[in-house]
Amino acid sequence: MKEEVEVVVAHNERATLRVGDVFLKIDADQTRIDVEVQAMAMAPIPTPEILWRKPPVLALAALPGTALGRLGEPSTASSAAWAAAGAAVRKLHDAPLPPWPGRSLDEIVARLDGECAWLIENGVLPTDLVTRNRQVAEAALRPWTPVFTHGDLQITHVFADGDEITGVLDWSEASRGDAMHDLAILTLGHEERLDDVLAGYGADADLDVIRGWWSLRSLSAIRWLTEHGFDPSSPGCEVDVLRARM
């Protein structure tokens, strides 16, 4: 049977295609690919095998198993698999720091406030919804001890086979960052799974900060998602995450 080309994700910044058991990542910004390759080499947890690289394309072998789930859909992964994801994140956070920095607190605050203003000025969301979540987000806006973070730890990037984590994808946002950010992105829209994740992660999790990152991430992402063909108002997605804080 002839293999087909599956478009996994595509927008004007980058695209990922799948052909059989090979993923082809195409990115106009080679800095992101450089970070991804370095981060996967440093990460102490399973990552995809790099098959070859010829800019602007990076070819990766498919991971066994399936993703923990998708935003806006119930996850069918077991509690043990979610706990294993938490344990993997802890192992990453305990690893030596990557040599490159992440976003500064000032950069994050400036981006958040700019996005909040845009949401209100353009009538995208009610003012009280934005204002309340901006207040919740304040908990995340504090100094943190940097750790090795994935940076974009969406559940679609974490693969499991049964109760075992088989690998983590998409390391282009990896950097020195806030540990609670990774935990928040992993559980965004799946708050009922946070206890499972923390059972594997262990101590030192701050629930208020995690909730702050849920609000911060959602507020900051809505414009980008809308402009790139995604719908943050779909059930269970970013707008519902914001409404849950009310």
TrEMBL record:
Highest taxon, organism lineage: Bacteria
Residues forming coiled coils: none
Keywords: Transferase
Domain (Aminoglycoside phosphotransferase) ranges: 37-211
Annotated Gene3D superfamilies: 3.90.1200.10
An annotated Gene Ontology molecular function: transferase activity
The keyword Iron belongs to this UniProt entry's keyword annotation: no
Keyword Transferase listed: yes
A Pfam short name: APH
Protein name: Aminoglycoside phosphotransferase
Organism: Nonomuraea endophytica
